[in-house]
Amino acid sequence: MDKKTTVALLLVCPDTNGIVSNLSSFIYNNGGCIVDSDFHNDHQHGFFLGRIEWLLEGFKIKREDIKERVSELCTPYNGKWTLHFSDTPIKVAIWCSKQDHCVLDLLWRNQAKELGNAEISVILSNHPDLKSKIDNFGIPFIHIPMNKENKPEVEQKQIELMREYNIDVIVLAKYMQILSDNLVDTLNNDGRTVINIHHSFLPAFIGAKPYHQAHKRGVKIIGATAHFVTAQLDAGPIIEQDVVRISHRDTVNDLVRKGKDLEKIVLARALRLHLLHKVLTYENKTVVFE
């Protein structure tokens, strides 16, 4: 049976009485069938955060008119809202360097239809190492060498490619370059979301070989964090995290292996949650409706 198209409304606004009632009544009064709803009140900061999803089939408002009617509904709340149709493809670009575990995992999951309506359109890399592996998936692999001298030109080329492919979401799958403020701001201003993955040692073990540093210190857990990218390095709103325990019997290679496993899983979870429109951001943090 074909999956029926749904409409998801996400709303973040100052908290006030009657929001849930008004959203639900809007859908009910127009013949909609609600299939999922989640709400959260942040009493400390005075925010309402909500997600409500309903079937498009049977809804009395024409698809092309829904956005205007939702705007009339949500504008008085003086917040931010987004509207998403489940049958709309979401174009994804993956940026990578030399490590293959995250990018290959995402490509395999995409083949298995685990990433919702993701349409992985292009892979960008500052190294050619992974081209032969990625070519097997039939997705364009674009290698753009980068160094300190040509970084501004390369970043401009990256911006142009994201526009050319009309990308919605960029995934930094162990892309080992720091994005400049100008690049991050331009991508955000273009309406593109950027998601990054890294080990959860930051800021305890920064720089090269963090797992070697962790092993030397005898850590008891290691972890991974996926977050939205902002101009402040590794400080964007966190989407997903996980940890695994470490014992004195684990070697450096064991830590690296376990760390890579976590990075794959956490990045895939974070991307899927975002693609399913389950993540709301405010005050540099997130509410995730799993």
Question: What brief labels describe this structure?
Answer:
alpha/beta, Alpha-Beta Plaits, Rossmann fold, 2 domains, 7-stranded mixed beta sheet, 8 helices, 30% strand, hydrolase, PurU_ACT
Radius of gyration: 21 Å
Tally of individual domains: 2
Fraction of residues in helix: 25-40%
Number of strands: 13
Q: Calculate the mean pLDDT score and round it.
A: 94
Coarse morphology: globular
Pairing-aware structural class of the strands and helices? Answer: alpha/beta
Beta-strand content bin: 25-35%
- CATH architecture grouping of the largest domain: 3-Layer(aba) Sandwich
Separate helix tally: 8
Q: Could you please say which CATH topology of the largest domain applies here? A: Rossmann fold
Element-level helix/strand string = EHEEHEEHEHEHEHEHEEHEE
- Can you summarize the main beta sheet? 7 strands, mixed
Q: Unreliable runs, pLDDT <50, ≥5 residues? A: none
What would you give as the CATH superfamily of the largest domain? Formyl transferase, N-terminal domain
* Strand order in space, largest sheet: 7-6-5-8-9-10-11
